[in-house]
Amino acid sequence: MSQSSVTFDNVTFDSAGIRIAAHLYLPDTAAAGPRPALVVGHPGTSVKEQTSGIYARRMAERGYVTLAFDAAHQGESGGLPRGLEDPAQRVEDFKAAVSYLATRDDVVDPDRIALLGICASGGYSLSAAGADRRVKAVATVSGVDVARQFRLGADGTQDPAVFRSLLDAAAQARTAAARGEDAGVMTMFPETAEQAGELGGQHGVEGFEYYCTPRGEHERSAKFLAWESVDKLAFFDAFHAVPLIGPRPLLQVVGSRAVTSWMAVDVHQRATGPKELHWVEGASHVDLYDRKEYVDLAVDKLADFYATHLGTAR
Predict the structure, then answer these.
(1) I need a labelling partner for 264 at 20 to 30 A (CA). Which of 53, 118, 151, 284 fits?
(2) What's the chain's Rg over C-alpha atoms?
């Protein structure tokens, strides 16, 4: 499929009273009318300049208007405390992004809007799509329910005592904050790749290499969570609304070596409409963030999916 050059504009929109910062990617090629559009969400602690920006640009090259945004409390978006991972707000951010695109009928066909969620945003996009009937299709790349990952571990085998200890720390932080003390934050990465491997195996090493080295790091990617995030994640279930997505279509793009793939299998089993679990051979969870040989394969599959269900620029 032919590709075009793209430009992007810095835009903002409101999400439950919080100012959201985003990049709106626009194909440079002429179109006979408004185009189909995609909302692209980033992984937890990430920002729009990282992997979500890569996919937003690549899909804009295929003719779609795409919107990559910073979640509330993160990146250039507003919201206090900084680094808060609030699942309800993250889902609201997706719905607010759809609302923004629906008002941009100068460039967007409001009847052809879909979601693309990467990693944690994969789970959030499923929740948003289940409840928001304006969404015509949803796809994920390395999609996870970040709440499940905290509770059960990336591979699903974490000792329950680990999450209980995080809940204890979050409770203590709330009490400290109530006393006017500095509650601190939950640091997401250790100081070295070796330490990351000891804590999280190869998945931990790959996360460290992406977020903490020149490979993918960005100054606004905070690498921490506010402690309040932990107990907010304790009860969230990103997959609860999956059956409501049908009869609209669902695509999940997953690396064959991703230790998180068990969550995509769970989603596939819950889905009630047209669904596909597409495996990228040889790719890990983080490989699909930025490794060109794997991103190329993912983009080809995504472009076919959205062309089938949204069409292309008229």
Answers:
(1) 53
(2) 19
